[in-house]
UniProtKB/TrEMBL annotation:
Single GO MF descriptor: peptidyl-proline dioxygenase activity
GO cellular component: cytoplasm
Name of protein: Prolyl 3-hydroxylase
Presence of keyword Transferase: no
Cofactor dependency: L-ascorbate
Entries under InterPro entries matching the protein: Oxoglutarate/Fe-dep_Oase_C, Pro_4_hyd_alph, TPA1/OFD1_N, uS12_prolyl_hydroxylase
SMART domains hit by this protein: P4Hc (SM00702)
Region ranges (Disordered): 482-511
Keywords: Dioxygenase, Oxidoreductase, Vitamin C
Amino acid sequence: MSKPRGLGKKKVAQKPVAPLFNEDELLGLISTSYKLSDNAANDELKNNNYTKNTPFPHITLNNFFQEEFLEQLKTELLQTQYWEKNNDLYQFLQTKDLQDSVRPNIVKLKTLLYGQHFRSFIEKVTGLEQRNLRLRSDKIDMSGACYRDTNYLLCHDDELEGRRIAYIIYMVPRDWSKEDGGSLDLFNVDDNLQPENITTSLQPVWNSITFFEVSPTSYHQVSQVLRDEELCEDRISLSGWYYCDVPVERPTPHVESNLEMNDPITTTQSVSTLLREWISESYFQEDNLNKIIKLFARNSSINLVDFLRKDKLKQITEELTRQVGIGGFKTVGPANRRHYGKWTESENESNVISQLTHLFRSKEFAEFLGQVTKYDILKQNVKCRRFANNDYTLAHDISKDQVRLDVVLTVLDNKVVSSDPSHGGAIVYMNEDEELLSVLPVDNSLSIVMRDVGVMQFVKFVNHKAPFARFDWCCAYEIPEIEQGDDDDDEEWEDDDDDEIPEGWVEETDE
């Protein structure tokens, strides 16, 4: 059993602490190596390559605080209430804004960091002073963060109105190493000012402070923490921002091209022959099809398991493994949108992956979907993807304003039937307010979801504990605009709850 770590304890009432401290007392919290009142020391730090560090200005100052103070500060953070933060972009624990905290050492730190002396120090080190820019003293933004095994914060730029300088104070175990993960990774950008590659990784170090300038290109992430949770030693940090009244100049936002949609492809085989060559026989039985149609009409989503014939599944699995070995899957980005392997299809390729891809693009499969969902298929887009450790997509969807059918066939390697939800890899549907549906990775399953306008989709980050690589055929099918009242027939199935679920498939239910 893990030892208690102090996170999430019942909040203890604190006596108010007056945030008035002697300047010498505050400066005494900083290591004697950094003499903030010494102009010579400031000049030395100012020239410490902050503006020259790539891919964007940043600096890390080690052994920055007095040890005793930092130990006491960490103790107070561990006694503070934390809440889980979990969405498409991140998964970790965080305190509320500490602006109103009355814990003595947190108050001291706030008073120090946002006081005139320290703000002047930051302005000198970062070169803001030379640009006649001043950091605000009335805007305090500070919170504590705890990253445990498999936690992460994916690629983003931190840009928000008024933010100018970001800072992070690390209180990790003293023996934290590269193998424990949790690095602060910095990205360079391409010609479209989108994140391209990680060019700098800063390892968290006990009693260090890192700060960098926030801009439209300050793309960074906290890499996945790999330190065994049983060690009960988390990646603890305290972070926040300095604000400036002078706004950062922003370029025109980059807009990705719309998803390329094509007409369904005509093949030379009959519908019956082509589909039966690939799809399990149970999906052609009239009683089963009728029940599938009813359940989809009721829920607007369904998950069909054991979808491919076993002989075809075996061929597919073997070819996917071979393609990985020869580099057939190329990583695609940008990292603030997605990170996964996409199968690169050759024009002359005729392997089983290409054949299955063509099936999903065919008019015959469009007719099968039309029969199941009662929607006409107008256009299609199909791609084969691989999600392994550190892969994901974010809820940035250029097609969220279009109604469509999402169809995803999932194949898992290593003969895994299904995955633990805590490993990631689920396809999640959400609107602006809440999560609507989560489709877990199940081997040889086909999910069909009618995605309405305003609904976004993402694939949850796959962490290092996942015992599989998840392959899928991600298919988008354009359907006619749904007129008001088109769903009125749903009530026809409300009382029809005694339908037995046929062997070989399961329905998807909303969360």
